[in-house]
Amino acid sequence: MQNNQTENPFTPRALSLAASRGRWFVTGLLLMAALLAGTANTPARDQDKGGKRGVDTMTVNLYVGGDIGRVIALDPTDPAYLAHLVAAVTGVFYEIVASQPVTRLGGVADRIAARLPDLVAVQEASLLRNQSPSDLVMGGRTAATNVVYDYLAILVDALAARGAHYAVAASTEEADVEMPMMNMQTGVFEDVRLTDRDAILVRTDVPPGHLRSLASLSAGRTC
Q1: What is the sign of the dihedral through the CA atoms of 109, 114, 119 and 121?
Q2: 24 pLDDT band (50/70/90 cuts)?
Q3: pTM of the prediction?
């Protein structure tokens, strides 16, 4: 039993390890942009030689909307682990739905659109998918693909609706975990899959040459 726990995708250990991977991706990329541009969080109105300005960066956390800590805290050695897991995952899923992700991310889009930074570091850009009926409870391994919420797509669309034009320049997966739950409307066991991502959004409406060239600024720089 002990040996199989590391292969179980929804044990607390697997969740904790997955959630800790790649967290430096966004931070590192923003630091690189700041170093190359010679400035960090520079207001758009600040200009340098030639009328060009530095790179303005912003970090946002989209927050999944539910307390996944309750799932991580479960004891996989408990004989009733599966029942407790289904109950906890079901509760977290409906917490996420009740948090109204589309409305919440609209608020995040408002803050970004008010400032219009050149780069936006996005943390907890969750992708929530499901599969009905569940195959996990029967030992199946078919991955859930039906999209319930794609936080990154919702945010980009909300920005576009506000006249703020951004595209995903880079993204990385922090965790990809699928677990069984109960659909409270139908009473059917389903699988819900949470993919946690970090991403970088970049403005697509900046005139060519308006920002200082990162490549030219890096020329002659020694490490």
Answers
A1: negative
A2: low
A3: 0.76
